[in-house]
Design brief:
It is a single chain. By secondary structure, the chain is an alpha+beta fold. The chain has one domain (18-220). The chain contains nine helices and six strands. It has helices spanning 7-30, 32-57, 59-62, 113-118, 161-181, 184-189, 192-196, 198-204, 206-220, and strands spanning 79-86, 89-96, 123-125, 133-137, 140-144, 148-150. A two-stranded antiparallel sheet has the order 1-2. The protein has a two-stranded antiparallel sheet with strand order 3-6. A hairpin with a 2-residue loop joins strand 1 (79-86) and strand 2 (89-96). Helix 1 packs parallel to helix 9 and helix 2 (32-57) runs parallel beside helix 9 (206-220). The termini are far apart.
């Protein structure tokens, strides 16, 4: 009995498989920014919904980042979440919008209300056209001719509360809940596309690995 092994074809296939594997890793590296871009987009929606939920749970803490009497409503947000995706990481930041609603008893919007209350900036209120300033203080009607200074606009719990909620999301909720509930962790743990494209990689080598790895990691940030 005689057996003939085609060493040339075997070695070529093995080389292509190795090149496919190396190309896959290189493709993942190249697609990292695309992955982070998708992750940034999905994270924005997640953190907005998280802040809305926290605001509804305790409307005394986060009422300042919504229009008057609409705490926790997506349509009444006075904040925006932004992100920048780069090869070395994902950066998230927030900005505040101007308020357009008018509080009962006022005639004009408190335009910078979110920023002022979040930073605990003291506010001085004084009559503009009237001779007397009227306002409510714990249910009591107060009248005064002079200016009134408010050291903690929004209340004692407000200053810094948005920043704390924002930080908590990324320090704890993001890694312990969001990455798992979104399916991203399971997706990254099980790169089935590598195995399913192995046959193509045996003939295509590194170029097939590059395209496979890039597509796989790029889609990871968009997993629902």
């Amino acid at each position: 009995m005689k057996s003939v092994v085609n060493d040339t074809k075997f070695m070529r296939d093995m080389k292509n498989i190795m090149d496919y594997s190396i190309g896959f890793v290189d493709g993942v590296e190249r697609g990292k920014t695309k992955f982070l871009d998708g992750l940034g987009k999905s994270s924005i929606e997640a953190i907005k919904e998280y802040i809305d939920t926290m605001a509804r749970v305790d409307n005394q803490m986060l009422h300042h980042v919504y229009e008057w009497n609409q705490v926790g409503s997506p349509e009444a947000r006075l904040f925006d979440i932004n992100y920048v995706a780069k090869q070395n990481g994902l950066s998230m930041s927030s900005t505040f919008r101007q308020s357009t609603s008018i509080k009962n008893g006022s005639k004009v919007p408190f335009y910078d209300k979110a920023r002022i209350m979040e930073n605990g900036i003291p506010v001085t209120i004084k009559p503009v056209t009237a001779k007397v300033l009227a306002f409510d203080d714990n249910g009591e009607k107060i009248f005064t001719k002079g200016p009134v200074s408010i050291d903690k606009p929004g209340g004692p719990m407000v200053a810094g509360s948005f920043e704390k909620t924002f930080d908590y999301f990324f320090q704890t909720y993001f890694s312990q809940v969001f990455l798992y509930s979104s399916g991203i962790i399971d997706y990254l743990k099980n790169p089935v596309v590598f195995k399913s494209n192995l046959k193509a990689g045996k003939s295509g080598g590194r170029s097939t690995g590059l395209s496979t790895g890039y597509r796989w990691i790029a889609n990871a940030g968009l997993v629902n």
